[in-house]
Amino acid sequence: MSVPPSPRSRRLDPRRRERIVDAALDVIASEGVAGISHRKVAAAADVPLGSMTYHFTGIDQLIHEAFTRFATSVSDQIGQRMLTAQTRDDAVDALVAHIDDDLFGSRRDLVLTHELYTLAAHDDRYRLLTTDWMKRSRSALERHFDPTAARILDALVEGLTVHRALDLEAVPPGLARRAVSLVVGNERRFDEPTRQ
Fold first, then answer.
1. Phi/psi at 180 (nearest 5 deg)?
2. ∠179-181-186 over CA atoms, to 5°?
3. Whether residue 82 sits in one domain with residue 35
């Protein structure tokens, strides 16, 4: 004979915390950091409102954890693409695919990137996140490019995403490939000593 569950027992939901973080990113993407609240995130995650304070000390902790997950996921994307590239040409193709597909392909991610940039401009905790993100991206690029070229390529990626997010005109086809090719074609010059 089975014993009925206690009325106080909780429904098993091992991914609840992860769902809340994912939902926080969705709310930020649709309403901005200024529009986030416990109630909106709980509704988006389909969890009781009390789960918010059970899993997070406050909305600030939730926002920081959400952006940590986001920044890590984007730097993991470029890391994986560079890891699978076998040749220099493969690396160029992989970087172009990262720009065109991973970054330009998602309006949500473009918005989240800019929300994170805004926080980082005012709060050192978020600047540490973006600094770590840049280091990880450059490290991935350095598998195939020298450190100076990797830094320039990383800045190029960020610049292209800013333009993509803010420009009302469509991105010209092939822009990412042309931009990467211009940098890579001039890579030898980056390590030459500067003439005084």
1. -60, -40
2. 105
3. no
